[in-house]
Amino acid sequence: MNNFVIAGNWKMNTNIETTISIIKNVAEQVDQLNEVKSTIVICPPFTNIYVAAQEAKKSKHNIQVGAQNCHFEESGAFTGEISLDMIKSLNCDYVIVGHSERRAYFNETNADINKKLKAVLKNNLKVILCIGETLEDRQSHKTFDVLETQLNGCLQDIVENDMKNIIIAYEPVWAIGTGVSAKTEEIEEAHNWLRNYCEKKYANAGKTVALLYGGSLNDKNAPEILNVSNVNGGLIGGASLVPEKFVSIIKTAESLSK
Ligand code: PGA
Question: Is the pTM here over 0.85, yes or no?
Answer without folding.
Answer: yes
